[in-house]
Design a protein that fits this description.
The structure is a single chain. By secondary structure, the protein is an alpha+beta fold. Among the domains are: about 250 residues, no CATH class; about 140 residues. Helix 6 runs parallel beside helix 8. It has ten helices and 27 strands. A nine-stranded mixed β-sheet has the order 1-6-5-4-7-3-2-8-9, with helices on both faces. Strands 15, 20, 21, 24, 25 and 27 form a six-stranded mixed β-sheet that branches.
């Protein structure tokens, strides 16, 4: 039986170009996608749960004349034919691709990446014609036999290795758990015209563009477990993927390691997976050092590793909606990224849940523990397996509700922990460095420790003020940013979006308007000109140019001086001098924040009272790098989370 490369005739069907949908899906992040898809498949094929799945990434160089490449000349001829055919069609994209491919081949040396897994079942069913793991990988499109909690379900993950090949050529080899062996190569090129001597009459000389290395007669697998890596021979069950013409850019090792840490941190920590990338071993024992070494490349993993290892982390497990248990790990700590990793039961991350409307500094991990809940949420996954999209589910409405419900449950857990955790070590988002303090100076008989056992971190936001300046005072009148509702915070992969501006329905000093009124304006974003007409009024003071103040290093403390009088002390030290500063206070509620009314305010540094209105305290000038102490009382007696926002401008 003849063995070699064969490119079947198109049979007068569709002519295929370079834009193969599956490959294009992964071209944006080829190395990350490669690592993610490979390790996912290996975890799904695990044999012994008492030992980790092992995956190796090993790169080597091959001469194009090396006998180990087996009929490489036929592949080269096909690539040349692709270039010639599409050169005549004047298709620049295809010409450029194959020009680079030929340049690589003519250099005499190509890179080969071998990816091998161990403690896996291998690709079973290589002796079957249809619907087996082997056939679905090698000779099927858009087909997957995975179900339940298994990772891939669209059948396009197999395209990820092709996105890493300058020749779009992959060679597969396996020894399955029953001892069955198979080898086959796939080249996903483009349609091209075969030489007339290669085809018979009435056979279309145009190919499909996909070629197979194996038994030419039926394009079937070779019944051997072959290796194109001279230093490797398989001796146990598992699968080998060889990427011919691997794009071995300088960053490939770092990006693959970073992807492994980001996407499989939990699996590695739980000793379910270990990965060797060019002799860099990532397993449970080395994880600490690897995370530290690559923390700039895998920042999310660095945060999540602290969640897994810190003694301060809180862990809970509970049933969710009758679908099975979820396991939640939360760590409240300075400088964490305020995200929760949503993870399958096998330890693979799906996505990072963001946009938690809280000032608490934290990081978390949520693991879907049981088969049933994994299967339910897997049905929502997109083809890249990095988002839950309820529209894909057979029960769309219910899926949307359960997705939002899980987010809200996580929010409840985080808020509850924030209420119980002392805030002396928690930073607020957007500040980066300050020192909240729950110290108390006792007045009266109440033995009251801390600001509140339910009080969370203080949120300090720097905003550009565009409020009105009254001619007879330094009083400012900005309005707080509108916050989206919980269901608007469910975008898994993007940060929060801007909202429409608001026209001022009151009289304005300026004919430009403030953009802070109650009615929606015309423009998206912030501070656009409102829709309503502005009432023009002569200004009594000159227009002041306002600039945003950078308070990223502002030090902040807050303490309760007298619980019975609702008297608080705020201490902060801005880096920059702020003209006409304003402090705004809000109570953080379950669904939204509400203003807290100020009853009195005093500058302790000067001993003078401060102007205040509703939830805002106005300060004429705050000196940079100088501590300012403000005492204030509020009209709210219950323990509650409080947020503080600092507004100001130079000028």
């Amino acid at each position: 039986m003849a063995i070699g490369w064969n490119f079947p005739s198109n049979n007068f069907g569709t002519v295929n170009g370079i834009g193969e949908a599956g490959i294009e899906t992964f071209k944006g992040s080829p190395y990350k996608s490669l690592a993610r898809e490979i390790c996912q498949n290996s975890l799904d094929a695990k044999i012994d749960n008492g030992h980790p799945v092992r995956v190796e990434f090993s790169c080597s160089k091959l001469s194009v004349d090396d006998d180990i490449l087996n009929d490489f000349s036929s592949l080269k001829n096909a690539i040349e034919a692709c270039y010639t055919f599409w050169y005549k069609q004047n298709n620049k994209k295809i010409k450029d691709f194959f020009h680079k491919a030929l340049k690589l081949i003519n250099s005499g040396t190509i890179s080969l990446l071998r990816i091998s897994d161990f403690n896996t079942r291998g690709l079973e069913g290589s002796d079957e014609e249809y619907n087996s793991p082997w056939q679905n990988l090698v000779k099927s499109a858009g087909v997957s036999d995975k179900s339940g909690s298994s990772g891939g379900s669209f059948g396009i993950g197999k395209s990820a290795p092709f996105a890493c090949s300058s020749l779009r050529t992959i060679l597969y080899s396996t020894q399955d758990i029953s001892g069955l062996k198979a080898t086959q190569g796939i080249a996903k090129l483009v349609s091209f015209e075969k030489g007339r001597h290669e085809v018979s009459n009435n056979i279309d000389p145009i190919t499909t563009g996909t070629g197979y290395y194996g038994n030419i007669n039926k394009n079937s697998a070779i019944k051997k477990c072959m290796s194109w890596d001279k230093n490797f021979t398989r001796k146990e069950s598992g699968t080998d993927v060889f990427i011919l013409g691997f794009n071995d850019e300088d960053c490939w090792e770092t990006e693959i390691i970073a992807s492994i840490l980001d996407d499989f941190l939990v699996a590695i920590y739980n000793n379910a997976l270990e990965v060797n990338v060019s002799n860099t071993l990532i397993n449970k024992d080395t994880l600490s050092n690897i995370v530290e070494k690559y923390k700039d490349n895998a920042k999310l993993a660095y945060n999540y590793y602290q969640v897994l290892t810190s003694e301060k982390s809180v862990e809970l497990e509970e049933d969710y909606a009758g679908l099975g248990n979820i396991e939640v790990h939360i760590l409240l700590q300075n400088d964490l990224h305020r995200r929760v990793m949503m993870t399958r039961m096998n330890g693979m991350k799906v996505f990072d849940q963001k946009n938690f409307p809280s000032a608490i500094q934290f990081a978390g991990i949520c693991i879907l523990k049981d088969e049933k809940i994994n299967e339910y949420f897997r049905e929502m996954e997109n083809p890249q397996h990095n988002a839950w999209e309820p529209e894909r589910h057979s029960k769309k409405t219910q899926a949307k509700q359960l997705k939002q419900g899980l987010y809200k449950r996580l929010k409840e857990v985080i808020l509850e922990l924030g209420k119980k955790t002392p805030t002396d070590s928690l930073d607020a988002e957007g500040v980066g460095e300050y020192l909240p303090d729950n110290s108390i100076i006792e007045n009266g008989s109440d033995n009251y420790e801390g600001l509140s056992n339910r009080t969370k971190g203080i949120n300090i936001n720097t905003k550009e003020i565009k409020g009105n300046l009254k001619s007879n005072s330094n009083e400012l009148n900005p309005e707080n940013d509108k916050k989206s509702e919980d269901d608007k915070n469910m975008d898994d992969n993007t940060e929060g979006n801007g909202s429409k501006d608001y026209a001022n329905d009151k009289k304005n000093i300026s004919d430009i308007g403030t953009g802070y009124g109650k009615n929606q304006g015309d423009n998206a974003g912030t501070n656009g000109e409102g829709k309503e007409k502005k009432i023009k009024k002569e200004r009594k003071t000159p227009e002041i140019i306002r600039k945003k103040i950078n308070t990223s290093k502002t030090a902040i403390r807050i303490m309760n001086l007298d619980k019975r009088k609702n008297l608080y002390r705020l201490i902060f030290t801005p880096v920059n001098t702020i003209e006409r500063a304003q402090l705004q206070f809000k109570l953080s509620g379950e669904q939204s924040n509400v203003d807290v009314n100020i009853l009195s305010a005093k500058n302790i540094n000067t001993g003078r009272g401060l102007k205040f209105e509703k939830n805002a305290i106005n300060i004429y000038k705050v000196e940079g790098k100088k501590k300012l102490i403000v005492d204030f009382t509020i009209d709210y007696a219950e323990n509650s989370s409080m947020e503080v926002m600092l507004y100001g401008h130079k000028g």
